[in-house]
Amino acid sequence: MTNVKTNAPVAVGEHHEVTAVRLNDDGDGVATVEGLTVFIPYLLPGEKATVRVIERQRRFARAALVERHTSATDRQDAPCPVFGECGGCQVQHLAYASQLAWKAGSIARVAKQLGLDADTVVRPIIGSESPFRYRNQVQMPVAFDAEAGKVKMGFFGAQSHRMIETDSCHLQSQAMQKTLVAACAFLTKLGSALATKVHHVIVRESAMNGEQLVVFASHANSAELKRALIRFKAADVTTVGLTVQPKIGGPVWGRTVEILRGTGMLQERIGGILFRVSPRSFLQVQTPLAEQMYATVRDYAALTPEDTVIDAYCGIGTMTLMLAQTARHAIGVEEVAAAVADARTNQADNGIQNAEFVAGSVETWLPKWVADGNRADVAVFDPPRKGIDPAALAAVAEVAPRRIVYASCNPATLQRDLKYLMEHGYAVEAMQPLDMFPQTSHVECCVLLIRK
Ligand SMILES: C[S@@+](CC[C@H](N)C(=O)[O-])C[C@H]1O[C@@H](n2cnc3c(N)ncnc32)[C@H](O)[C@@H]1O
């Protein structure tokens, strides 16, 4: 944005004629008005439109579509009736092949900004065979509508807590949708006194056997509510739980989940290993893509039977147990206690001896482990969106493993962390984008770094 006109005469409320030239990383069309960059949601590259400025910052503005005058050839009808209102999807209006090209382009841009030759380093993006109905979990806000006398469900609008009512999200399976509809009808029958206590219904589904786990998130820890929720039944549901999160508008999950009925977990088979997944444990949202991601990580790690490998941010140990199969020793590190418990059970159930799991934060454990004189041959990182903590990055640079494999779901923090690692003795050998989250602006990427 070097040529941006910060003093451009563009003000909130004005209408302008624009042509979008590209999509930004959030999926918004990017146009220029009087030299100022303007972001317009739901406008595709090449499309002309009249827009209204709704926000003016020093270096850019945001605008809303008033009228679109032309249609890009890769525009498609969004199947979801609330697309554009609901904050869940950003690019349902873009043909899937173009979604993939755009996401591959974001990763190529990261490579270029790091001074790399994107054409040699970035591999062709791995797309999804099911760009709709791919999610294996959903967290649906629910609310009691006093006027209608029933519980309604929907998603929050983009950057708001206004519920956009829908019972047909196109990212989740039909079976999960049926369960959500049944849960709302069940809550309605309980009556307003109990139904108003519940703010979310969470459903997770096993790709292996279709079993579902349902957790009701409540503002209150009510014995009466628990007694009622135990009775919730739907075709594929094998577990019903309750989590208490009293903060209005706060996080969905409380600190714990009380299992009211059933086994308290799902089973999933990934890469030939059987996993137990409890309600709070992380699992990649699209199981077939997760398999492809793990295969990439395994190839990039290129372990030998003498190697010690660290799997930082390991969740339920999916990658740790896979990596243990070709290493001498694999260590998984994870801060969510329930996920570590799952990981240890998964290790025992699969009879894998040469893995261990550490419960704690990577940024606390890794520097201490290194200070104690331990070393790893290969390190795998799969952090949340905020990326790797600086203390953990400094520690891994000190360990200097032969290879580092970085699985990221946020190109911005990936770029920041790769820059650090490149300045500390590593070369980026390959970047593999994967479309874990079709119809949204998110993209996953696995990166192989080799010690120079
Ligand atoms: C993107 S998930 C990856 C999980 C796992 N690799 C997988 O593929 O299923 C990130 C994981 O890191 C955990 N986590 C987040 N911050 C952490 C931290 N500071 N230290 C350790 N684990 C953390 C989360 O609980 C989550 O399980």
* Mean pLDDT across all amino acids: 95
Q: Unreliable stretches, pLDDT < 50, 5 or more residues?
A: none
Give the count of structural domains.
Answer: 3
- Share of helix, binned: 25-40%
The CATH architecture of the largest domain can be given as 3-Layer(aba) Sandwich
What summary fits the major beta sheet?
7 strands, mixed
For this entry, what is the oligomeric state of its chains? single chain
Shape: globular
Main sheet: strand order: 9-8-7-10-11-12-13
CATH superfamily of the largest domain: Vaccinia Virus protein VP39
CATH class of the largest domain reads Alpha Beta
CATH fold topology of the largest domain: Rossmann fold
Count of separate DSSP helical elements: 11
Amount of beta strand: 25-35%
What does this 3D model show about the protein?
- It is a single chain.
- This protein is α/β, with parallel strands linked by helices.
- It folds into 3 domains: 15-68, OB fold (Dihydrolipoamide Acetyltransferase, E2P); 103-129 and 286-451, Vaccinia Virus protein VP39 (Rossmann fold), CATH 3.40.50; 137-269, OB fold (Dihydrolipoamide Acetyltransferase, E2P) (Beta Barrel).
- 26% of the residues lie in helices and 30% in strands.
- The chain has helices spanning 96-113, 118-121, 174-190, 192-195, 223-229, 287-301, 318-324, 337-349, 362-371, 390-399, 411-423; strands at 15-19, 22-23, 29-33, 36-40, 48-56, 60-68, 137-145, 150-156, 163-165, 198-205, 212-218, 237-244, 257-262, 266-270, 273-277, 308-312, 329-334, 355-359, 378-381, 403-408, 426-434, 444-451.
- The strands form 4 sheets. A 7-stranded mixed β-sheet has the order 9-8-7-10-11-12-13. A 7-stranded mixed β-sheet has the order 18-17-16-19-20-22-21, with helices on both faces. It has a 6-stranded mixed β-sheet with strand order 1-5-6-4-3-2, with no helix packed on it.
- The radius of gyration is 24 Å and the shape is globular.
- The two termini are 33 Å apart.
- Bound molecules: S-adenosylmethionine.
